[in-house]
Design brief:
This protein has about 270 residues and is mainly alpha-helical. Helices cover about 80% and strands about 0% of the residues. It has helices at about 10-20, 30-35, 35-65, 70-100, 130-160, 165-265. The longest helix is centred in the C-terminal third of the chain and has 101 residues, at about 165-265. It is rod-shaped, with a radius of gyration of 65 Å. The relative contact order is 0.05.
């Protein structure tokens, strides 16, 4: 088909549209004389084919269950997918041809690359979003794509936040140094507390050392007093013993004197 605006566009468009519609449409000369009418009929026909393919794809397992083996049903579904993609592409092309026949002018536009991250998916030969299965999966894909984009963004942020090997080693050394400083600080605080406690206990020891000579002096004084008391007691005992002895020896002496006195008087 020649591009819109060219001299042979309408003739080539009519030939292509007649290939889209059923062959019996060629019997109607009005469709050749008025290409817009042919394009309109082709648009409805192509849309009906797409919808029929989608409905057939949805009901294939139910309609063919028991009549075909499972592997044959899978082959039928594959045919629906392939033909559905072709029919959807044809319907889209028919719509564009109809717009061109109605006089719409198409301005070429430069397609810019999308800024959104793309998820890596294997490309298939079938056009995306054109077959019956794609039409059913379109809402699922619409929900899955933002989720995949969010996961990709999260992975990118995680990769940016993940430190490199040298940076990780440096951070590990810094943490080890900080822990060592904390241990040294704790040890210094423990030593300061021990020194303060020893300083508090030192005056008590000095006081005890001062009180110790006083106690010894008191003990010596007590011992001296006890000794002096013992000496006095011993002296007193000796004095009592001497007096008793004197008394016992003086009695005979007096008797002797009295005897001499008696003799003298005689």
């Amino acid at each position: 088909m020649h591009p819109p605006g060219s001299e042979d566009f309408e003739s080539t468009a009519v030939g292509w549209l007649l290939d889209v519609v059923p062959p019996d449409y060629r019997l109607h000369g009005v469709l050749r004389r008025y290409p817009v009418a042919l394009a309109t009929m082709a648009r409805y026909h192509s849309k009906a084919c797409v919808e029929a393919a989608r409905q057939g794809y949805r009901m294939a397992r139910t309609d063919l269950a028991g009549a075909l083996p499972p592997h044959a049903i899978d082959t039928v579904l594959a045919a629906y997918r392939k033909e559905g993609a072709r029919l959807a592409a044809t319907a889209e092309a028919v719509a564009l041809v109809e717009r061109a026949l109605r006089g719409e002018v198409f301005t070429p536009k430069m397609s810019l690359p999308s800024a959104e991250p793309r998820s890596e998916e294997p490309e298939s030969a079938e056009p995306r979003g054109t077959g019956p299965e794609a039409a059913e999966q379109r809402p699922v894909r619409a929900k899955a794509e933002p989720k995949a984009a969010a996961q990709t963004t999260a992975k990118a942020k995680a990769a940016e936040g993940r430190p490199t090997g040298a940076k990780a080693a440096e951070e590990q050394r810094a943490r080890a140094k900080a822990e060592e400083e904390q241990r040294a600080e704790a040890k210094a605080q423990e030593e300061r507390r021990a020194g303060a406690k020893a300083a508090e206990e030192r005056p008590a020891g000095a006081k005890a050392a001062e009180e110790r000579p006083a106690g010894a002096k008191a003990a010596r004084a007590k011992a001296a007093g006890q000794k002096a008391g013992g000496v006095k007691a011993e002296a007193a005992e000796r004095g009592r013993t001497g007096t008793t002895d004197q008394g016992s020896t003086g009695t005979p002496r007096n008797s002797a004197g009295r005897g001499r006195s008696d003799l003298a008087r005689t």
